[in-house]
Structures are given as C-alpha cells and as structure tokens.
Q: What sequence folds into this?
C-alpha cells in the first residue's frame, strides 16, 4: 500500500506549494488555513517542518473521536472523516501527536489528509521531491533530480582586455 | 463586497498624519490595471500631484499584490512596492520595486490586496494587519533596530506565522539607497523606498491571517497551474543542475536550496546555517544568493576582491540588517572605489585606506552609510549622487551608472556580473532609455533568455543560434528580433514587448527571472508549451482562470500597455519627462561592450545615429510622439485614458519648465 512520506533528508525548499495546491484542490481556494498539510517555515533558522497525517495504524484521532467519525478506508489506505457523523468537538485535533489534524473554521470541523483519494497533489508538485507517495516497504524511489530553473551570477572573466 | 476571483476585494488606505484607516474596493481598478504595479500607477496618477517630493508626507507608499499572489500559480509569492523614489535622478521619479518572501501572499490571507499609505506619523509606528482588521501601533521600542531584530521582536509579539516588511537604520536615516526588507534576504531594494517609510516614521508592516483567495475557475486554474509548474521543471541549459550544491559548504554550513519566495520552485537561493561570522565572532544563518555573492568577490573578474565566503556572508547580512541596497553598493560603488584606488584618484575614506579585501573596511563603510557618518553621509545619498558630489572618478562612474541614479544591469557594459553581448544589449538600452529606474528588475527576459539558451552561455546544451533566431521571430513578430547578426534591426519589437511583460509580471504578481517562458529544448520549434498552452501565454492562462476576466489575451496585453503609458504620463506630468531625458543613456552605451559576440568577433559599442533611429522606431510602435517622447492623444484614447490625455494636454499648454532637483 502506498503512503505519503517525507524523504528522510527533508530537502524541502520552503516554497509551500504543497500547502496552496492542497487547499486549492481540497477546499477550492488558496488558503493555508484550509490546507491539510502545513509547513512551519521559520525564515530565520531556515527550518521547514512539514506536518501531514501519517495514516497511523493505531490512530489516536480515531480513538479520541466520541462518535467514531474517523474511519479507515482499506481501499485507499487512509483515515477518512465522515462529515455527517463529525460533531466538531475537536478532540481529534488535540489527540494527534503529529499536529496533522487541522481545524477548518469554515466547516466548523477538523480536516486531515485523505491522500486526495489516491494521488496526493502535494507529492505530484513538490519541486524538491521532499514529499513522496510510494510503498514504504520498498526502497524509496530515487529523486529524479530533475533540476528546475537555476540562476546564478556568471561574472565576465577578466581576460577580456579592457581597451579604451 | 464579496471577492472577485483572484482578489480579496479590499484595499487598505492608511493616513499616518491623522491615524485614520479606511477601506476601498479593488474592483475600482480591475480588470483595467491588472494588479500590483498597474494599480499603483493609477493610484499615483490620482494621488500624487506634481511638485511632490519622495520624502514629503504627501508621497504615497503603495504595497500591492496581484490576482495570482497567494495562489498555486508558480513563482507568484511577490509584492510590488511603489512610490516616488528618492534614489531617482535627476528627479525623484514615481518608481516601483518588487520583493519576494512570503509577505504578499500573507497580506492577502490577512484580507487585503494592497495597502496605500499617505501622510507621516509624529512618532514611530508600525501597521498590524490581520484577518480583515488593521491598526497602527507604537514602534518606539523598535526604532533604531536592524531589520532582523525588528522582525524577531514582532514575530515574538504576533506569532511565528506573521510576515513583516521593515526598515533598518538606513531607512530611518533617510538614505536614498535604503531598502524595505522581509525575512533574511528579500527586499524591495531599488528606489530608496526604505527612506520613504523612514520619512513617514513607519517602521514596519506586519501581516498575518487565515482568509482565502477565491478563484473564478477552480478546476481549470488548478489544472493549468499544475501543468505550468511542471513545465518549469526543465532546466535552463546553463544552470549547473542539482549537483551545484558545494559539498564542502553542505558539510560546513548546511548549504541547501531554499525558496526565496512563496511558490518559487527554482533553485537559485541557498540557505546557510550557523556560518561563523569573522567580524562579530558569532554565527549567522540565512539565505544568500544573486548579487549578495559579490560581497565575497570573484577573483579573476571585474569584481576582483576576496574576503572569503564567511566574511562575504556576514557582510551581506550586515547590509540586510541596516537595510542598504546591495545593487548600488556592489555593482556601482564598490567597483568605482576599486578603480579609483587603482588609478590613485582616491586612496582612503575618512582616513581609512580603501581595501575591498578587508571585511572591516566594508563593515565600517556600511555602518557609516546607515548612520550617515563621515563619508557615509555622502554615500547614503546613493552612489551616483555621492560620486558627483565628490567630483572624483566621474568618467569611471559614467561607465557604471547608465542613468536615473542606478547602477548597470544586464546591459553588456557597467554590469560585469551578467554576460550579454551585442546586439542583445540594444534591447536593454531601449529599456533603460524609457524607464525611470533600472528596468531590468522585471525586464530580464530578453537579454537573459537569449544569452542563457544560446551557445554563448549554454554551450551545446541549449539551442543553436539559428533556433534562437527562429523562435524569437515568432514571439516578437519581427524576423530580426533575436538574430545574433541582426544589429539594430527589429530590436524595437522586443523592447515594446518586454515593457509590457515587465508590467504584467509586477502586476500579476510573478517572478521576473522565469517569466515570460519562451524557449524550450523539448519542442520541435523550440518554444515552450504546457498542455496546449503557449509558453509566453502562461501568465494570461493563469490570470484568466483566476479572475474570470480577460477572455481574450489581447485584453490583458492592452491593460499592460495602458498601465505602461500611465507610468510614462506620470513621469511627463510630474517630472517633465521627454525624449531628451531618454537620450541621456546614450553615452554609457557608446563605450565598448564587455566582451564580443562570438559570431561578430570584435567588441561593439552603441552607434548614436542608429540608436536614435531605433528610438524613433520604438516611439512609433508605442504611439508616442517621436519628437517629444510623450504618449499621443490618439494612443491614450485608444487605451481608455482620456482623462490622462486631457491632463497632459493642459500640461503641455502650460509648458512650464520642471525644476530639476
């Protein structure tokens, strides 16, 4: 079963494309506050801590839910929130040790990564290939290393004689 | 009003003199002026009467995002800041500067598309904007602090998710080369806009929020931004690829790629952690790239000094903390100091020997600029003004500063850090001629693209000269537009085209280095494409899907042209701009280029007569009067600018001379 995971070396660049694409796909708007993944980006230390659901085998969120609204989907391999059952108590948000249960003010309910139904958009677009969607029991796929644009100064060498 | 697509719908107006804050609707300005720089031009036309100076309270400082800012559009995390800029020479032109980081997107999440700031506070204040609310707060505890300490204090106060645009001592002390800084390395750097904040006693603008950016055509926007982002995963052929991290720096300083702004997927900027700082004895972390690398120096090049990586890194952080413009210092002032010293024209400053290999020399020089001490008081006026006031090495300075008080940039002459050869710098010369600042900040793409994709910089990994010429002919609409042997022919076409594209990028907002996307090694005709979208139309596809406006791409082009002409009209009305001014850039280009076009073999220089002909051609294409360089009534009417046409006509009837500064 494929899982969404962060490459061990965490080569995240901090562009937060995963966050905006997630909210655009899943909430229909661009808003980090409505994304199911979050990057705690500290511009001064450079730290990029990425938070998203680990699809735990023994899920604290599901255990904390008083109405059993968080249900494992065996087919897709992810925990799903049943919107009709959820009462919006927020217990699951408190329970998650990965801080990957997010609160959506518009819904008045928690939201979480549900793997975009089987092809998470964050892993599709992560330019650093930090996020990977693959079978964790196998060797993680090698970064393709496809370089994106890269601009550096290339000063003119001085061997051009400065006539005049 | 509920938002239209791409916008929050609201603009914040802050009068610092009275402390009053009000709101206006973005829809007053769109779709006619696109966003960012375009909207700022309209506001300036309405709010900035002739005679206003950059440091007057009446100057308006405009922070504005665009319909793509804060969305999934690649490279869209930018903000344009506009105002009368004190760096401008010989007049303090209405200008703009663009910054990265995450500030612009966060402003939209805070509920606003832009902020217009007028007046001046009696004592230092900062503006706190969050979730549809705004308030002015006392900043006396922050006044005097550097940009890093200010941001850290405000992060501690408002939480780690907020983003901050701030000034350091250089801005407080009204340096004409003071920047507005955000995060560790991003800044609205050109124009001296930090001094505009300083004059207004506005220390910082703090933004944070949880509000969404709505999109008009959601599915289409998602699909298209995804496809365009993927297309950018092709390398520019002259890039050094993934292996370009330096293993030694990775081991010693944790070098890694780090986005300079939200949605930036390029690998230009690196982050370094705990770099030993030789001057202070501490360690420093932060981003470091582009022109900042010149602090370190490049032996064997025009920037032939060497302080080593660690001191270079520290010096760049010192400049950022004071809020001093890197470009003026490194492309203008430092080479001038070096050449003056070599020629014995100037050997010391305030009794200190000029020594660009000495980190303490640099640090002391920057401290004096920031606090206006000794010679620093002079250089706080910007390189061009300082050198002219000193009256030393004027011939050297004339080869470093093309015009308007700005040092060279992608022009084949004064800027030796970026390599461009004849005839490609002719388009740079046109861009410089008609602008009021260094035009290349959002006008890179002609010279940069042609050079980087051609055998000149890409060797055999890019396109052939013939392919460059062929593809360019299609994009620019003239067969000679990118032909390496074409000389002056057809260069007005890319000149006009990139004027509009620069406006589009600063208004959308999207990054300048990567847009417009033109060339590709993966298509038979060498033009970039993604899922049926033509590369040069990427911005239009995204803006159309985000806003639901601009059904036809020509409408967007027309809006760019409208805003571009309005900027020109402001320069004419407020500062008496005319063709004579434009021609002042000629002598700079009449010297030999830095290195020859390999297909020509000999270094070229500008031919005055032929360039005057090129200017004629450019004005004609633009619908500007060939004698005066002023937009014609006919063209202004075609752009829906009848009020502007009337005002310019009144101005010319009055025909009063505009006093030079």
A:
């Amino acid at each position: 079963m494929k899982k969404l995971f962060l490459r061990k070396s965490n080569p995240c660049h901090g562009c937060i494309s995963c966050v905006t694409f997630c909210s655009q796909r899943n909430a229909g708007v661009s808003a980090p506050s409505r994304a199911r993944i979050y990057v705690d980006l500290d511009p001064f230390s450079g730290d990029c801590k990425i938070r998203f659901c680990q699809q735990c085998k023994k899920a604290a969120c599901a255990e904390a839910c008083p109405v059993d609204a968080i249900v494992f989907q065996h087919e897709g391999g992810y925990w799903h929130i049943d919107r009709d059952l959820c009462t919006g108590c927020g217990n699951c948000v408190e329970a998650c040790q990965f801080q990957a249960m997010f609160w959506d003010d518009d819904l008045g309910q928690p939201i979480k990564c549900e793997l975009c139904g089987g092809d998470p958009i964050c892993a599709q677009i992560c330019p650093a290939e930090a996020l990977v969607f693959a079978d964790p029991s196998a060797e993680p796929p090698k970064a393709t290393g496809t370089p994106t644009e890269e601009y550096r100064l290339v000063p003119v060498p001085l061997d051009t004689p400065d006539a005049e | 009003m509920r938002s239209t697509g791409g916008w929050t719908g609201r603009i914040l107006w802050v009068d610092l003199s009275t402390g009053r804050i009000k709101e206006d609707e973005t829809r007053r300005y769109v779709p006619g002026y696109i966003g960012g720089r375009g909207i700022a031009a309209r506001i300036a036309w309405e709010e900035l009467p002739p005679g206003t100076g950059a440091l007057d309270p009446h100057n308006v400082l405009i922070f504005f995002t665009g319909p793509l800012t804060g969305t999934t559009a690649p490279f869209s995390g930018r903000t344009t800041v506009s105002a009368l800029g004190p760096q401008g020479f010989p007049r303090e032109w209405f200008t703009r500067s663009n910054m990265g980081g995450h500030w612009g997107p966060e402003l939209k999440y805070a509920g606003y598309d832009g902020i217009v700031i007028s007046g001046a506070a009696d004592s230092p204040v900062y503006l706190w904007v969050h979730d549809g609310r705004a308030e002015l707060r006392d900043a006396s505890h922050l006044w005097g602090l550097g940009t890093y300490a200010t941001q850290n204090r405000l992060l501690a106060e408002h939480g780690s998710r907020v983003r901050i645009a701030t000034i350091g001592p250089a801005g407080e002390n009204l340096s004409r080369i003071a920047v507005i800084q955000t995060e560790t390395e991003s800044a609205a750097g050109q124009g001296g806009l930090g001094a505009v904040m300083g004059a207004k006693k506005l220390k910082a603008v703090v933004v944070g929020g949880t509000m969404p950016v709505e999109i008009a055509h959601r599915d289409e926007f998602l699909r298209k931004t995804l496809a365009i982002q993927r297309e950018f995963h092709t390398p520019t052929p002259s890039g050094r690829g993934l292996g370009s991290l330096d293993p030694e720096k990775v081991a010693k300083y944790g070098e890694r790629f780090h986005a300079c702004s939200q949605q930036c997927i390029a690998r230009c900027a690196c982050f370094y952690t705990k770099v030993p700082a030789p001057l202070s004895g501490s360690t420093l972390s932060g981003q470091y790239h582009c022109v900042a690398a010149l602090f370190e120096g490049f032996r064997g090049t025009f920037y032939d000094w060497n302080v080593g990586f660690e001191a270079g890194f520290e010096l760049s952080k010192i400049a950022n903390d004071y809020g001093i413009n890197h470009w003026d210092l490194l492309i203008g002032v430092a080479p001038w100091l070096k050449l003056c010293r070599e020629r014995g024209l100037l050997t010391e400053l305030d009794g200190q020997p000029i020594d660009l290999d000495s980190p303490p020399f640099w640090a002391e020089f920057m401290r004096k600029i920031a606090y206006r001490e000794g010679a620093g008081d002079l250089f706080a006026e910007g390189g061009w003004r300082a050198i002219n006031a000193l009256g030393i090495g004027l011939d050297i300075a004339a080869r470093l500063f093309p015009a308007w008080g700005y040092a060279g940039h992608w022009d084949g002459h004064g800027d030796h850090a970026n390599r461009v050869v004849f005839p490609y710098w002719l388009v740079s010369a046109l861009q410089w001629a008609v602008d009021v600042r260094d035009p290349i900040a959002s006008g890179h793409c002609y010279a940069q693209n042609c050079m980087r994709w051609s055998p000149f910089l890409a060797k055999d990994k890019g396109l052939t000269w013939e392919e460059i010429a062929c593809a360019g002919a299609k994009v620019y609409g003239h067969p000679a537009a990118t032909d390496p042997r074409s000389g002056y022919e057809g260069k007005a076409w890319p000149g006009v085209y990139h004027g509009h594209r620069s406006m589009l990028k600063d208004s959308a907002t999207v990054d300048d280095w990567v847009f417009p996307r033109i060339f590709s090694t993966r298509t038979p005709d060498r033009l970039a494409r993604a899922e049926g979208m033509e590369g040069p139309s990427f911005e239009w596809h995204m803006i159309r899907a985000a806003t639901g406006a601009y059904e036809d791409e020509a409408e967007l082009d027309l809006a760019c042209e409208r805003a571009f002409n309005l900027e020109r009209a402001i320069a004419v009305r407020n500062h008496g701009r005319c063709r004579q001014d434009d021609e002042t850039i000629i002598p700079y280009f009449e010297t030999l280029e830095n290195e020859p076009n390999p297909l020509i073999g000999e270094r070229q220089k500008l031919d005055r007569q032929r360039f005057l002909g090129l200017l004629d051609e450019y004005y004609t294409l633009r619908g500007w009067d060939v004698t005066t360089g002023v937009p014609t009534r006919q063209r202004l009417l075609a752009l829906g600018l009848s009020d502007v046409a009337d005002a310019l006509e009144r101005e010319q009837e009055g025909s009063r001379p505009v006093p030079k500064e």
About this structure: Chain B touches chain A through 79 residues (CB under 8 Å). The longest strand of chain B covers residues 202-208.
